[in-house]
Input
Amino acid sequence: MIHKCLFPAAGYGTRFLPATKATPKEMLPVLTKPLIQYGVEEALDAGIHTMAIVTGRGKRAIEDHFDISYELEHQIKGGSKEYLLDEIRSLIDQCTFSYTRQVEMKGLGHAILTGETLIGDEPFAVLLADDLCAADGAGVLKQMIEVYEKYQCSVVAIEEVPMDQTDKYGIIAGDLVDDTNDTYRVTDMVEKPDPKDAPSNLAIIGRYILTPDIFDILKETKPGKGGEIQITDALLEQARQGKVIAYKFKGRRFDCGSVEGFVKATNYFYELGQQ
Output
């Protein structure tokens, strides 16, 4: 069973400036709910109750969001708007939240390594809140945990992307091991390759199940593209031992790290609420 979900949430969100100058990008709302709340709900749906969040300077709003606001609740208690806090109160009641700070921005691999103190020696999920996923049935993390339970190794979520966009993602190559469930045994991974160098168009998105040995690998991983410690490079070490499965998830992903993706997500969830 996966008990903990790690949320790397220390990035600056520069693509959304000036909105993110004083507001964490993870707190940008799609309709009335911040991105990170969607992520916590997805993790809870997967049976995870311990949320470990890697934050940074200026991210205090995340901690405040997952806490009781006595003044606000007193102000609206008994009124017509009290129900609007039902969802977040339910999360606060069901989940435990812990936090640590990433002092320097050195890439996703470094952010995950920073979270080791919150995770310990056990397999765990990683969720990037600006990849907002929607699924008709089980959420993406719940789907991935089922894959993990079968293969007992690290799992990455993938989707097909246009070949001319491979330089925006970590790209995998692999051998199909279950065509009924779209799972691959990963043989190679490349971080943001040029289209001419990409081994496929199967791109890793912001959902992972990682085994705890990833921390020791990350400690030995040297900075890669952009001078950052890439989780892709660390996963490649596991993949060389046959210990990484890529899973083409069922559902839809919105890249809410981009303005275009954020608008698409807003429109999608608005139309969904009208049905």
About this structure: The chain has a mean pLDDT of 93. The two ends are 35 Å apart (CA to CA). The first strand starts at residue 4 and ends at 8. The chain is about 30% helix and 25% strand.
